[in-house]
Amino acid sequence: MTKHPHAAQTTPPRAEQTSSSLPHASRVHDFPSLASKAFVEAWPSAFLAAERATDSDSYGYAALSNVIDRSLHASVAHLTGGLSPASMASAYWDWAAHLASAPGKQMQLAEKAMRKTWRFANYAGRCALQPNAAPCIEPLPQDKRFAGEAWRRWPYALLYQGFLLNQQWWHNATTHIGGVTKQHENVVEFASRQLLDMFSPSNFLLTNPEALQRTFETGGVNLVYGLQNFLEDMERRAGGKRPVGAEAFVPGQNVAITPGKVIYRNRLIELIQYAPATETVRPEPVLITPAWIMKYYILDLSPHNSLVRFLTEQGFTVFMISWRNPSAEDRDLDMEAYRRLGVMAALDVISRLMPDRKIHAAGYCLGGTLLAIAAAAMARDNDDRLKSVTLLAAQTDFTEAGELTLFVNESQLDFLEDLMWEHGFLDSKEMAGAFQLLRSNDLVWSYALKSYLMGEREPMTDMMAWNADATRMPYKMHSEYLRRLFLNNDLAEGRLRVNGGAVALSEIRAPIFAVGTERDHVAPWRSVYKIHLLADAQITFLLTSGGHNAGIVSAPEKKRGEYRFTNRVDGEHYADPAEWVKIAAVREGSWWPEWSAWLAARSGPPVAPPLMAEALCDAPGTYVLQS
Q: Where does the record place the region Disordered (predicted)?
């Protein structure tokens, strides 16, 4: 007998029939065990789902907390000029804790305080008997605040002598304390000096005899003018305007007027080719890479102090990179972009225009550091287009980078990155504030004294106007530059990678001409001098008088200043900076002719000038005019 086809599908097995035929009470009795089994089987997937939800929420909270922290830091940075309060606090507590646990240092400071009090009392007694008594302490050579004769009269002599003694004591109190890290010691000493300078007797009308004398002579008109100057300065700063008088110096009108053409442009640079000024020129052109923190025309100021004009008059074909002033849309431009779109793009254009000719490359400040990186990468890749490399006030080792390192540590950089994150760039105001702090006596207090107490406006010069024409720096590039070079010193220590491979300055074979300036607060000359330890090429080192800018802009027409230099040849032993100063030849005047002769000695015989490339526009171009 055949069964219906569906009978086998509808009839449950015996075991299932037995189970399903159990009374209802029995199924209820087994529910806990069945539920436990279901829970055990289901809990892994449920746990994972809950974990995913928790992770999703944590990512959101992390992003929100990151935005909150960064926004707060950026807001605080606007009030502190970009200085990290946490960084300053950690330096202070490091100093205070070690000083508190150093009773011997405390005894020494107490003894110094007593001796300085006795010196001051003795000087006060001598002043009462001798109006022109010899001072008990002399200011530092660079301190000109108390140089006038009015400061020799009582009671002003007591005021400034007491101030200098107090300043000296605080220097002793903030230095040479065992256990304090060197950077923290430098920060505390620097901060104490800045605070003391705020309360210098030269900064206040009633304690400044020269300001009081001027007030009596003018019947107080100087104070009226000073108030006008103060209000005008505040109005200009609030409106983002340049200082008074700077509008008289406009690129293309009375500065940056050396004849030339913009022959190439990308999103980062314009390349300028300058017209020849002689009937014949050296066959090797000169490419100048300025720092992107400044407008290029520091090297092409007024005709009488233009390095570009000087080089063209010496028979060189000169090319200049003019950097674009970045905005928020350029926030992701990095150091590699500056190398690739800057130095390398310019070299490629020149090579196409003047094939089979090697190039003298020169870099100023950060531009010199970038050029050194590019030259090292070219040497690694067997690219031999460079005839020579000139580094003008440019550092390649950052272990002794001067007082700028006060603002370079993990806490400070994290704080600064949050400030740049807000806008996508570091604004020129923050950079200007940092540089003014480094030279507060010259750039802040002396200016305030002359403009607001004396009521006088210092005449604007081309260099002062250029100095007020600062540029911005992209977020990513500036962060990389500070971390990889200033903080980690990756270039000098062989960790910097370019285009997928490590670079070493020791691979550069082109001769190097390095220039340092004696009073450089941005690139101290002893730091620039370290190129001797990093490069195996022939090195000519030149040390010129002046500062970071005035030392480089040293036109022969000025007929002032001096420089010293040496040539290092193969096999010559290293001399440290102290030894080098003793053996270097000293010469009077501008160093420009020395460099020109050095370039000429490494160039071929003069030839006819190259044709000017097809121009996009006349020099100085468009990028230099961006504000």
A: 1-26
